[in-house]
């Protein structure tokens, strides 16, 4: 899977998330021992600080990032965009149960070609999504395009830890544990074999920060969690 690129990679990832959509939340909780809830809340707080207006959550998946954003009093509407109808169907069901269905607007779409006008959103978020983009520079350019000047882009992602010991321990755990959990709880070994491969083939927090700055963001706030394996990066569109 690590060698797939472009449309082939996009098709693989869309199919994979469609298959695991019903078990995605459970597996996230098991793999992170529940810490993903805290990481998302931290990222959401950065994304909404000094922000007024609609927010776009790219790669919204089952909606948890969007729902954390909507807990803040200065956020009225979050549009959740994802290319997996199955994942968004889970998000829709959750939004109804939470009483947020009028404030969470699901949109099926591609992060590389966002169906929105320039400077449409006060803030744009991506939670555990940029690692799966088939063309990261293109997707980030479009994300910045739809963000207002002075608005925010916030990314929450799994990255390669930069410390040697932390990197070795994390990657070994992730490679060993994740596929086994996927096979047992979701019946899909291949999908959860892809996830650690995607991290191993990704980048460090420093490299991701440099790419975000190159896409047109400034005043970056960078936080790392989970022994340096989780990055929260928030910046303003220049």
UniProtKB/TrEMBL annotation:
<dbReference type="GO" id="GO:0008168">
    <property type="term" value="F:methyltransferase activity"/>
</dbReference>
<keyword id="KW-0808">Transferase</keyword>
<dbReference type="InterPro" id="IPR029063">
    <property type="entry name" value="SAM-dependent_MTases_sf"/>
</dbReference>
<protein>
    <recommendedName>
        <fullName>Demethylmenaquinone methyltransferase</fullName>
    </recommendedName>
</protein>
<dbReference type="InterPro" id="IPR004033">
    <property type="entry name" value="UbiE/COQ5_MeTrFase"/>
</dbReference>
<dbReference type="Pfam" id="PF01209">
    <property type="entry name" value="Ubie_methyltran"/>
</dbReference>
<dbReference type="GO" id="GO:0032259">
    <property type="term" value="P:methylation"/>
</dbReference>
<keyword id="KW-0489">Methyltransferase</keyword>
<keyword id="KW-0949">S-adenosyl-L-methionine</keyword>
């Amino acid at each position: 899977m690590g060698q797939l690129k472009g449309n082939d990679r996009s098709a693989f990832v869309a199919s994979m998330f469609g298959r695991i959509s019903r078990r995605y939340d459970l597996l996230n909780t098991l793999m992170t021992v529940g810490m993903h809830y805290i990481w998302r809340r931290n990222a959401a707080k950065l994304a909404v600080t000094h922000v007024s207006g609609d927010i776009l959550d790219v790669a919204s998946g089952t909606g948890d990032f969007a729902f954390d954003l909507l807990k803040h009093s200065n956020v009225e509407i979050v549009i959740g965009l994802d290319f997996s109808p199955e994942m968004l169907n889970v998000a829709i069901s959750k939004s109804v149960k939470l009483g947020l269905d009028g404030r969470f607007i699901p949109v099926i779409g591609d992060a590389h070609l966002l169906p929105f006008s320039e400077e449409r959103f006060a803030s744009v978020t991506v939670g555990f999504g940029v690692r799966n983009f088939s063309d990261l520079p293109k997707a980030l350019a479009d994300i910045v395009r739809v963000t207002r000047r002075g608005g925010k882009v916030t990314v929450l992602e799994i990255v390669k830890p930069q410390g040697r010991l932390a990197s070795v321990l994390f990657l070994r755990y992730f490679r060993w544990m994740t596929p086994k959990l996927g096979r047992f709880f979701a019946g899909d070994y291949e999908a959860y074999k892809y996830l650690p491969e995607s991290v191993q083939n990704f980048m460090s927090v420093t490299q991701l920060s440099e790419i975000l700055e190159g896409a047109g963001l400034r005043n970056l706030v960078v936080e790392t969690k989970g022994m340096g394996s989780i990055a929260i990066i928030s910046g303003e569109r220049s």
